[in-house]
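We append the chain.
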Amino acid sequence: MNQNPGVIGTKLGMTQVFNEDGSVTPCTVVQSKPVVVGKRTQDKDGYDALIIGVGTKTAKHVKKPQAGFYKKQNVDPKALLREFRCPADFAAKFETGQEVKLDELFEAGQYIDVQGVSRGRGFSGVMRRHNFAGGTSSHGTHEYKRHGGSIGMNMTPGHVLKGQKMAGQCGNKRLSVLNLRIHQVIADQNLVLIRGGVPGAKNATVIVRGAVKKRNGGKVS
């Protein structure tokens, strides 16, 4: 389980950064202004975690149990909440209602994992959905260029096997991209520039955490 520090963010889109040597780095811009809404402790809940909230929400749109929770924590209602498990010593650094600074969590060159929901592409064929090569275009073949070909067999087992790659719903799935690198952290504007692309459309919600497959959460130092 990934217990490295992380935040909820909004994918603003992509841009490019010109480096000192003249090269260009494509970057995804993620904006986040996280606030600690609550905490989980080992004594009370059996594990340690921080409840992070982003955005704002009007009081009339908050259900009564949630309103009572926000009132108890003395925090304004948030548009989105996520729970991030973390070590007890890291959770002890933050108090309820405290804003989490991005430069306290991330640094340039750090490896991170990004999770988001990919763009939905509707009902798609096998070439777009599964990267099939398509049928041949010669030797008398016609009207079969983008088909998937045979899907089963006549004899044993005599039916189409489960999980057969066919046309259907494409995209709109939760994906995780591992071991991306942070190009720059602009803390005063609540921005993180990530090298390469991340799942999701513009203004989609993404989760950014330290890389689970790297030591020290992927940090350089």
User: Anything to note?
Assistant: The longest strand covers residues 6-18. The chain has two domains: 1-32+101-134+164-221, 35-99. The radius of gyration is 23 Å. The CA atoms of residues 64 and 70 lie 10 Å apart.
